[in-house]
Amino acid sequence: MKLNLTIIANYPVPLRLGIFIIFLLILWLPIAIPLYLLLQDDPNLTTIVTMAILYLEFIGLLFVWNKKVYKIKFWWRDYGLVFTRKNGIELLNGLSLGLFFTFGLFIIEAIFGWVKFVQPGANFTRIIFEGLLSALGLGLAEELVFRGWLLEELKKGYSRNIVVVTNGLIFAILHFIRPIGEVIRTFPQFPALFLLGVTLVWAKIGHSNRLGICIGLHGGLVWGYYIINVGKIVDYTGQVSTLVTGIDNNPLAGIMGLIGLGLLSLLMRRKKDQ
C-alpha cells in the first residue's frame, strides 16, 4: 500500500515537527546505540561519530520529507542555500561582521582594563585556519537546521513575529541542554542565545531569504571566539565580575556580550525593515 504523506503538510506545526523528529530517531537510534556500546571507552569519539551520522541522516531525510510531503525536489533553494555570487558575498560579509564583532567586544574590554591581549604562540597561524574551517562547518550545519529546515517549517503555520520568537527560543533551548546546576550557573547565556537566534532570523529575512549571511555571521562569531580562546591571546585581569565579561570566559554569558548582541540584532532588524 502506497502511503500518501502529503497529508502531513496540513498538520499543525508541532505535530509536523514531531513526526519529522520521530522519523529521524527511527533511522538514527539503531545505529547510534550499538556505536555507543562499542565506543563507550572514548566518549569524545562516540559523540563525534554518532552526531556525524545523525546529521547525515538528517540531510538524507530532508530529501525524502520535502519530496513526499511538500512535493519539493530542490529543497535547499527554499531553505536559502543557493549557490550564487550574491549569496557567497553575503557569506563573506557575515563572516567579516562576526569576526569584527567578537574582536571588537574584547578590544572594548581591553580598553576598560578588564582583559589584556598577550603574544600569541608559534602555532597561531594554524589555529586561525583551523578555526575558520571549524566555524564555517558549524555555521553551515547549524544554520541549515535552524534557519533552514526549522524556520521554513515554522513559516508554514505561524505569522512572522511568532516565527522569529519561536525560532530564537528553540535555538536557545537546544543549546542549553545541560545539568540543572549548569543551567542555573550559566543562565546569563540563555538570553544571549535567544537574541542570537532572533538576529540570525532577521538577517535571513533582510537578505531575501538567502542563508549565506546567516552562515557567515554565525561562523564569524565562532571563528573569532576560537582564535581568542584556543589561541590564548587574551588574559582576564579579574577587575570585574564574570557576569560582565562572561561566565567561563564565554562572551555570550556576560553583560558585555548581551549588549553587543543587542546592537547586532538592531542592525539586522533595521536591514530587515528596509
- The string of secondary-structure elements, in order, is HHHHEHHHHHEHH
Radius of gyration: 20 Å
* Rough outline: globular
Class derived from helix and strand content: mainly alpha
Unreliably modeled segments: none
Strand order of the largest sheet: 1-2
How many DSSP helices? 11
Strand content: under 5%
Note the main sheet: 2 strands, antiparallel
- The whole-number mean of residue pLDDT values reads 93
What is the domain tally?
2
Question: What is this entry, summarized?
Answer:
The chain is 72% helix and 2% strand.
Characterization of this structure:
The protein has 274 residues and is an all-alpha fold. Helix content is 72%, strand content 2%. It is built from eleven helices and two strands. The chain has a two-stranded antiparallel sheet. Helix 4 (85-111) packs parallel to helix 9, helix 5 crosses helix 6 and helix 8 (189-205) packs antiparallel against helix 9 (212-230). The longest helix is centred in the middle third of the chain and has 32 residues, at 124-155. The chain is globular and about 65 Å long. The relative contact order is 0.13. The model has no long low-confidence stretch (mean pLDDT 93).
